[in-house]
Amino acid sequence: MTVTASTAGRRRARSTKILFDVGRFLVVLITTYLGLLAVTFFIGRVIPIDPVLAILGDRAPASAIARVRAEMGLDLPIWQQFLIYIRQILSGDFGTSVLTTNPVLTDIARVFPATLELATFGTLIGTIVGIPLGVLAAVKRDTLIDQAVRLIGLIGYSIPIFWLALLCLLLFYGKLDWVAFPGRIDIAYEYTFTPITQLFLLDAILQREWDVAWDVFRHIVLPGCLLGYVSLAYISRMTRSFMLTELGQEYVVAARAKGLSERRIIWAHVLRNAAVPLVTVIALSYAGLLEGSVLTETVFSWPGVGLYITNSLQSADMNAVLGGTLVIGSAFIALNLLSDLLYRTLDPRTRAR
């Protein structure tokens, strides 16, 4: 009886903790998203662009301006406008783009896969190259190799991405002709290739259209490598930091005392423990590339969300600008929360708290 009661008590405590964690997660999610909605809403209200004039033009009669302003709810108190804005967003109504005359959500669904593909390509490069560089820098601490890796990261942080993009475009396209013209796919394939997932490189490989795959690769390789370099700088620095922390732990001394090889200690034990916080770093780097590829997409005419927002901003199309900002912000929040959940799942110390 006592054992059964004790077991039931532990189960109730575990269930209560799970419910508490889920409730806390939902509160954080809702609060963060409401904050994002508030930021985008007030940005749309404080910038010196009248959405009514953007739709009707400067020469529209005053009666038409007043009518459209009332239809859009802009004559209501600011708190009522905010509530209407929240209701519209939650119902999937991001407004209509002045530039394309399409629903903003339709436009974003069309351009977001391009940004997703470019950011994924860059993150893969940053992860595949950045982690080994960080491990090497930690193992060779304070040597010439360590200084070189740190210098590579410093350059990635310091040089403006648009300047580096223009320089690489001039060199690798203008001079060497190693990459394709800016864009996502050659016009010769644009109307004959039918993508499945809208991720052109993956779709071309799945359909075994190798000429299309090579063309898409020649378009994505330069902007993807540039974003990968930015990701690499961050991931390598954090990998080095995590590895140095783990190398100072007692289990490393014990493993060496048992006669384990240095390679096995580094790759099978130290990196395995450092990989737990690295999950968060990679997820945040991925989110950063999703939201920070505006300049890269503009330079390379990459038809993603960044270029869509830039063109919309130049046309005073605030529905499109705020809709794109909201979608990218939502992706950043989702990846941030996902990384936190993965960290809690992979690290038993956080589950025990």
What's the structural blueprint in terms of helices and strands?
Layout lengths: L1 H45 L4 H6 L5 H10 L6 H13 L13 H36 L4 H15 L2 H15 L11 H4 L9 H7 L3 H38 L2 H8 L4 H31 L1 H6 L5 H10 L3 H29 L1 H4 L2
Helix pairs in contact: 1-15, 5-6, 5-10, 5-12, 5-15, 6-10, 7-10, 9-10, 10-12, 12-15, 14-15
Structure commentary:
It is a multi-pass membrane protein. Belongs to the binding-protein-dependent transport system permease family. One of its GO terms (molecular function) is dipeptide transmembrane transporter activity. Residues 112-339 form the ABC transmembrane type-1 domain. The chain has 353 residues and is mainly alpha-helical. It has helices at residues 2-46, 51-56, 62-71, 78-90, 104-139, 144-158, 161-175, 187-190, 200-206, 210-247, 250-257, 262-292, 294-299, 305-314, 318-346, 348-351. The chain has two domains: 2-90; 104-351, MetI-like fold, CATH 1.10.3720.
Q: Please tell me the CATH architecture of the largest domain by its name.
A: Orthogonal Bundle
What is the overall shape?
Answer: globular
State the secondary-structure class. Answer: mainly alpha
In round numbers, the mean pLDDT is: 83
Structure keywords:
MetI-like fold, 2 domains, 16 helices
Please outline what is shown here.
The chain has 353 residues and is an all-alpha fold.
